[in-house]
Sequence to fold (147 residues):
Amino acid sequence: MGTHWLNGAYFAAVGLIESLMTLNLIDDMTETRGSGNRECVAQGGANILNGLFGGMGGCAMIGQSIININSGGRGRLSGATAAIALLCFVLFGAPLIEQIPIAALVGVMFMVLLAPLLGVVLEFYTKFLAQMLLYLSRYLPSQFGKI
Fold:
């Protein structure tokens, strides 16, 4: 029994850390400030209540959060709308979902997740390369002048 509690604590910690990292990223993207304490209490309470009904715990999803922000969503309604649309799709679109190969769903999932992240990475490397070239343009001429 003790091992289950320990594993549960590990899973809760990982989910909480992921949610706080997502909150930090969204804060940077929207130039706002979210409440980490409120996020922790809300997620913990929701997961405990969900567990009492036999459900599976959850945490903030970085992919869905980035899609919501890039689509113009800024409030709680954007997340609720995404959740309700997903619920309706699963409940009423089950026969259609069964026709889609798992490999295709995994490919779509990776592309949806990687597209925004690749944009952030490319933006970082572009800025890094520009700073490096600026530094080299200042540093190298002074070094060659000493030769």
About this structure: Residues 102-145 form the longest helix (44 residues).
